[in-house]
Design brief:
Blueprint lengths: L4 E7 L3 H17 L2 E3 L8 E6 L4 H17 L5 E6 H6 L2 H5 L5 E4 L6 H4 L5 E3 L20 E5 L1 E2 L10 H5 L3 E2 L2 H13 L4 E5 L19 H9 L6 E5 L8 H9 L6 E3 L7 H7 L5 H14 L4 E8 L6 H14 L3 E6 L17 H26 L3 E10 L3 E6 L4 E5 L8 E8 L4 E6 L2
Helix pairs in contact: 8-9, 11-12, 12-13
The structure holds S-adenosyl-L-homocysteine and FE3-S4 cluster.
Amino acid sequence: MAMRKKFYIETLGCAMNVRDSEHIVAELTQKEGYEPTETLEEADLILINTCSVREKPVNKLFSEIGVFNKRKKEGAKIGVCGCTASHLGEEIIKRAPFVDFVLGARNVSKITKVLHTPKAVEVDIDYDESQYAFADFRSSPYKAYVNISIGCDKQCTFCIVPHTRGEEVSIPAELIVSEARRAARRGAKEIFLLGQNVNNYGRRFSGEHPRMNFTDLLKAVSEIEEVERIRFTSPHPLHMDDAFLQEFATNPKICKSMHMPLQSGSTRILKAMKRGYTKEWFLDRAAKLREMVPDVSISTDIIVAFPGETDEDFEDTMDVLERVRFEQVFSFKYSPRPLTPAQNYADQIPDEIGSERLSRLQARHGEILDEMKADRIGQVHEVYFEELRPGGMVAGRSDNNMLIQVEGSEELLGKTVPVKITEAGRTSHRGAVVA
Ligand code: SAH
Ligand code: F3S
């Protein structure tokens, strides 16, 4: 039998990109006869699935593909996929002529086409793949990512995503439910629903479909018997209405961790960002959530030094940090992006001020995490084990998304077991299985 062709893939960025890469892998292995390799030099096809949310990864891209080009074996192809592909398009082939094709974040289903079209550039953001049936592949047997929408209809003034992933289109609920059911029957007891703005689900479908909002979709997925846990990312604080919080709080299959991307604590800056909510609304939703679900963990995204951010605005962000006491914070210095309105705003903040604010925010959040540690010791959580770790450890997540490791081996994988926390860290904890 002839040797199968091999591909190497590197994935940057968000969960959506991780899922897009899984789709690419599925199409290549099942329709094109490829198999994966971890060794670049051995690959017949080298892919990089890019992120363009902040500037740094874009600059890194060209040096990285330059390295691919030097190390690749004779005749191997190089493809650039994802958001930077969407945003730069044919520019990529102009700057790096050795690139064989460019495949945008909304054109993943065309991977089998670009592969056979020299110098192909597929970056149409109006392209509709909301009903495309991808071949099936999941990188984890225990957890299944399921897309529920493509694109984003918000116009946050700092964000390039609507320009790289296009308008928001919801995937029909029956496709989502059948995909979740198939994955769960194969052992993925945890279903992770993905979209740029999940709780805006159901506003637009590409064909005639029964109307369904996100709360109803959560109910439908939770009715699948084999599904034990449901997670989702990212919801938008603006659409966290009472019905949604109620479903989140009372549905036992929905994991009790919520991502609430704050971006800024200043109502004035939120307005300039076009986020659609105020500091008070955000605090009200977070307080309501903590009241309804005492065990909930709340994570967030914060941008510091957005154009025009004064010391006072930044103090508002610090104030929200103090009051909500997030269990996890992803914080970023504002990065001006092409195609976005905020890049042209007056009062761009000097880099040193941005760095200072970022360090202050991160330092204070580190202290908050340290303050939380004492409470964690002795707690018992149901942990779903997913991964072997070096040193005879197995890692999994509690219902409220804490990363917990215990001593153990394969037999714990795919099981949900009560674990008592014995040592608490900032981002991960150690525990012992409760006999
Ligand atoms: N709707 C998606 C947002 C994707 S971008 C989600 O909620 O996951 C992920 C995060 O990157 C955003 O929440 C924001 O905090 C950050 N981000 C986006 N654009 C940025 C920019 N221009 N500069 C700095 N951070 C940015
Ligand atoms: Fe970006 Fe705002 Fe959508 S952060 S992805 S435009 S919700």
